[in-house]
Every structure is written in structure tokens, then in C-alpha cells.
Amino acid sequence: METDVAIIIAIFAVIACITFYTIGVYSKLKLYENKIKVKWDDVESLINEKIQILSKSIGFLQGYIKEEEMVYKDMEIIIDNYNKLNNVNDRINEYSKIDDAFYALYTIGDDNAKLKEDIEYNMLKDDYDKINAKIDYSKEFYNNEVGEFNNITGFIPNIVKKVFKLYNYNVFR
Description:
Blueprint: H1 2-64, H2 69-84, H3 88-110, H4 113-116, H5 119-150, H6 155-163
Helix pairs in contact: 1-2, 1-3, 1-5, 1-6, 2-3
């Protein structure tokens, strides 16, 4: 009889330990997820500034170089597509298209000798360079948090991630 009670107590103790460990893992995952969201908000606000610079640049260049109308429309579509996305991982994947659009836009501008002398054009390019530096800096903090979150592995952490639909985040390159 005493051994039956000891076995029951041992079983409850093991269940309690697993339960408390699972709660701890869940709390840790949610903490990292919240940190990721804060860091993403920082990056996202900078990306939105970059998109505003891109929009201003499109408007500015349209006044100078009319024959690239199709390129400008494509860039506006890229911006619209990016803004329609809600998922962080999807936005990270789409971000490279915004960078490509900037490259294409400034390639058009740099090919025009008159634009190279224009103060407003050069200010837009400077703003672009500054915002890129800020984005790169913010991405480091975001990627650190994502790395911590994604590296929480093990049997119970993987079960907790699946049960609570806590998916790994993409690293922002």
C-alpha cells in the first residue's frame, strides 16, 4: 500500500515537473516572439520611410525622364504588393524587390547627366543611403532575436511550438 502511494506521488511529481517545464518553455518562446515583434516594428517603420523615399524618387524622376513610365508603374506595383502583405516572413521575402526597384531607379537617374547635378536628386539619394544604414543596423537586432527564438529546440519546445502555432521566423538578409 505504501509503495502504491509512493508511485502515485512520483507520477504526479513527474507530471508536475513536465507541466512547469512546458509552461516555462512557452513563456520563454512568447517572450522572444514579443521581442521579435518589437524589433520588426523598428525595421518596418524604417522600411516605410524607405518606401516614401522611393515614392518621392519615382515622382521626381517622372518629371525628368518620361520614357521610363513602365518602370515607374512596376515600382508602384512592388510597393503595393509589399504593403498588402501581413506576414513578417512574407514581407522579408518581398523586401528584396524594393531594393531592386531602388537600384533600377537610381540606375536610370545616374544615366542622366542633368540629374547628377540636381540637388534634390542627390538629397534623395543621400536619404536613401542613410535609411539603408539605419535598416541594416535595425536588422541586426531583429536577426539576433530571431536567432534566439529559432534556436530554442528540443522535444518539448518543438511540441509547444506546434501546439501553439509558434513558427520560426526568417532571418532578414
